[in-house]
Write a structure and sequence with these properties.
It contains six helices and twelve strands. It is of the alpha+beta class. The chain is globular.
């Protein structure tokens, strides 16, 4: 589901839009000025105007998000991926830090070195034709994405860890602000790597900085048949004091979470003990367990995909 986007936010140069639901989640539009006409417009799909002065519950034509019915359009299989190039930071959508739904986020100075695994979602019909956080039009038939932390615009390679399929996307939107999600893909990108029609998938997101020496797109993560599917874990805390780690682990075990693990790792020369629950059986289960852990008064856990 998409987030809010009021005129006040635009005036404040936030222009944040969110997503993060199970199915589709973001705005939509045609093309960036100076680029070729989008597939959506060329093939006659709707393009709606966007009155950003309207409140969130009245801004969009649809109440809920959805994806096109039937099989994906054949042209998605042959769409060229965007070619990363150095671009100036957008005037909108890059305020840092910013706060959404009580959570504060910081925008990275560049996509260089960004490499994170987690849960991807996607967004489609509801937001098609509406403004993204940097005031471009969202086109669900282009390879784009939304990130909470990557600068706008920037580029990333997204790899589905279940099948090894990958796609380069241009990040031009903020979100998803649904907990437990790290990236919101356009419908076309979700189709290309197999996140559609399920709605979510375990992915690796690798930032691309074309202005850096050797800034070519990274090679996608290799998935082998004998590697097995990655697991979803919820990290409830990381502690330097072993007693604190064991105290939280005991709380979780007493609440019948299983399995609960205390892992010892080295971080910047320090010994840290991570308290994790998992592996969990799928995204829905991870969402349910997250809600239960928060209900115990513990910090919101972080998703880890290993």
């Amino acid at each position: 589901m998409r987030f809010w986007r009021g005129l006040a936010l635009l005036a404040a140069a936030l222009a944040l839009s969110a997503c993060g639901g199970r199915h589709a989640t973001r705005p939509a539009g045609s093309t960036v000025a100076g680029q070729s006409q989008s597939q959506g417009t060329r093939h006659g799909w709707f393009h709606r105007g966007d009155d950003t002065s309207l409140p969130q519950d009245r801004r969009y034509g649809d109440k809920t998000d959805s994806s096109p019915t039937g099989a994906p359009p054949a042209f998605i299989a042959t769409l060229p991926e965007p070619v990363p190039k150095a671009e100036p930071r957008s005037l909108y959508g890059n305020k840092s830090p910013y706060t959404v739904l009580g959570q504060t986020y910081r925008v990275l100075p560049s996509a260089r070195g960004y490499d994170e695994r987690g849960i991807a979602s996607f967004y489609g019909n509801k937001f098609h034709g509406y403004k993204t956080s940097n005031l471009e039009d969202y086109d669900m038939y282009q390879f784009t994405a939304a990130s909470k932390v990557l600068p706008l615009p920037s580029y990333a390679r997204v790899t589905n860890l279940a099948n090894g399929k990958s796609v380069i996307v241009r990040v031009n939107d903020r979100g998803p602000f649904h907990e437990n999600r790290i990236i919101d893909l356009s419908y076309a990108a979700a189709v290309r790597i197999g996140v559609w029609p399920k709605g979510t998938g375990l992915v690796e997101v690798q930032g691309i900085d074309p202005s850096a020496p050797g800034g070519e797109p990274p090679a996608p993560h290799t998935v082998t048949a004998d590697a097995g599917s990655p697991g979803i874990y919820l990290q409830v805390g990381a502690f330097s004091d072993p007693a604190n780690a064991e105290r939280v682990a005991a709380q979780l075990r007493q609440a019948n979470f299983a399995p609960v693990q205390v892992e010892q790792v080295q971080v910047n020369g320090r010994t840290i003990r991570r308290v994790r629950v998992g592996p969990l059986d799928g995204v829905d289960r991870a969402d349910q367990v997250t809600a239960r852990i928060e209900g115990m008064g513990l910090p919101r856990p972080q998703v880890a995909v290993d």
